[in-house]
Please model this.
Amino acid sequence: GAGVSQSPRYKVAKRGQDVALRCDPISGHVSLFWYQQALGQGPEFLTYFQNEAQLDKSGLPSDRFFAERPEGSVSTLKIQRTQQEDSAVYLCASEAGASDTQYFGPGTRLTVL
Amino acid sequence: KNQVEQSPQSLIILEGKNCTLQCNYTVSPFSNLRWYKQDTGRGPVSLTIMTFSENTKSNGRYTATLDADTKQSSLHITASQLSDSASYICVVSANDYKLSFGAGTTVTVRA
Model:
């Protein structure tokens, strides 16, 4: 595709539910990033993949958060037993190479009730 | 404490006027500094990327400056247009991939 796509765009979950957020990066981009953006704040780093390898997951807030990119393209961010504090916009970005421009998707707005 | 501080938090300008946004950072070591534009409900879009050795870079009506000694950057918007209304985010990279984002400056351009 022409850019990074994310689905769903909006997700409402009841507290305790599991959710899965999908990211389709730009074809051929080696690097993929997940960020969490709270209202009125800049994005916060969650995790980074280089191809299928998850090289940094230091930003994941708890062990309820899990990300994978099994074939080095599409990535899924899973949140188990969602809590209200998980409500945020989750942004995915991809990058052709190190220190290159990061291209962001539109984000998934997660609301946990 | 956030390692990237932006000011002002928000500003309103009239169409056609210029404005300058400020960014101070403490991220170290320093790899590059980026400015992104984020429209409401959308992901950020890259405007400029500057490395340590660059002190100015332009992208159309956007001009970014960098003073690596004082760890300050600015983004100047010339002849603002209504479409410039957005949040402008300063982003500093300490290495190849990990980015530190500022909270952004919300710019509103009025006719």
Notes: Chain B touches chain A through 22 residues (CB under 8 Å). Chain B has no helices and eleven strands.
